[in-house]
Design goal:
This protein is mostly helical and about 120 residues long. The chain is built from 4 helices and 2 strands. Strands 1-2 form a two-stranded antiparallel sheet. The N and C termini lie far apart (about 45 Å).
Length: about 120
């Protein structure tokens, strides 16, 4: 049985971050895999196909839109960067401080991914 093509790869995230890949620390793989798991768990509505009654069973495939893909890539990149800069914006010198008080970047990522807002029932 062939494995489906991954919808987000560490290579894409490394290219976006402009860091070498494979990453000897494993941080690119770790952040990418964490975001893939989070998005697939939260956006289960994007799984298509699959047949658990077939022999052998056919797994469903996660098919995100471009917005979800881009949001996940940005999220993995931000997760990678936060080790060096708690604000999530690596690359600024030690003397410079950048604080995103409103969480605008995180809000944009969650909007792209389609993270549903909590609802009071």
């Amino acid at each position: 049985m062939t494995q489906p093509t991954p919808w987000l790869t560490p290579e894409e995230v490394a290219l976006y971050l402009d860091v070498p890949y494979p990453d000897p620390t494993g941080r690119v793989d770790g952040s990418t895999n964490a975001v893939i798991a989070l998005v697939e768990r939260r956006r289960s509505d994007l799984f298509t196909g699959g047949d658990s009654t077939a022999v052998p069973p056919v797994p469903a495939v996660f098919v995100p839109g471009d917005d979800v893909h881009e949001g996940a890539k940005l999220w993995a990149a931000q997760m990678f960067q936060t080790r060096n800069a708690p604000s999530g914006y690596a690359g600024y010198g030690d003397e410079a401080t950048l604080f995103d008080a409103l969480g605008a970047r995180r809000a944009e990522i969650l909007r792209l991914v389609g993270w549903r807002r909590p609802v009071i029932v």
